Amino acid sequence: MPHYEPLLKVWKCVESRVDSKRLYYGRFILSPLRKGQADTVGIALRRALLGEIEGTCITRAKFGSVPHEYSTIAGIEESVQEILLNLKEIVLRSNLYGVRDASICVKGPRYITAQDIILPPSVEIVDTAQPIANLTEPIDFCIDLQIKRDRGYQTELRKNYQDGSYPIDAVSMPVRNVNYSIFFLVGMEMKNTRYFF
User: What is the DSSP letter of 79?
Assistant: First the structure.
């Protein structure tokens, strides 16, 4: 029976880059692993990264007296639904727990971006240039927002909110995609593998 020296475990980042203000990429290696361990580690790590890391997002917006989310507001290029989708895309960073309030209050004509959101002190915007709406006329425009830290993806049933408040499907996932690959180590016994994610 051949005797093999124990191999040192390697866990390191082999590639990282910033694709945009809101998108980072990283590639990591973990090796050596015995045959079968790589799949077990890969599945567990993927689930943990996609479902268990908390993130902060906008969960509700209140527009005053807007009859439904498909309405248009005079002096605004986007419909209420388009504004809600733009608010959903805003990436926030915080260490808050519980629900916090934020708001936007501007006078047109002008573009509204994430920079115009008035946030509580514990919350910051990752990309302040993210678009929200375009005011085409000299109108006053205010939105009350609700911010929450959570994990995963939550959807709320759409109702006709009489107070002009609309839920935003919350995407509280800082990690949006995880893939992994398993490679056999060259020159090693077949039971040792290398794991990339």
Answer: B
Task: For residue 81, give both structure tokens.
Answer: 């639904």
- Whether 80 and 148 share a structural domain: yes
Same domain, 149 and 90: yes
Judge if 103 and 167 occupy the same domain.
yes
| 38/69 same-domain check | no
pTM (2 decimals)? Answer: 0.78
DSSP state at residue 132: E
Q: How many helices (H) and strands (E) does the chain have?
A: 2, 13
Cβ(166)–Cβ(80) below 8 Å:
yes
CA dihedral over 30, 32, 35, 36, signed as positive or negative = negative
Structural domain of residue 188, as residue ranges?
A: 10-52+176-196
Residue 71, Cβ neighbours under 10 Å: how many? 13
Q: Are 75 and 136 in contact (CB under 8 A)?
A: yes
pLDDT tens-digit map of 3-61: 555 556 778 889 999 988 888 899 988 888 877 888 888 899 889 888 888 889 999 99
Q: What is the pLDDT of residues 54-101, one digit of tens each?
A: 889 999 999 877 777 778 888 999 999 999 999 999 999 998 888 999
- CATH code of the domain containing 121: 2.170.120.12
For residue 68, list its beta bridge partners.
none
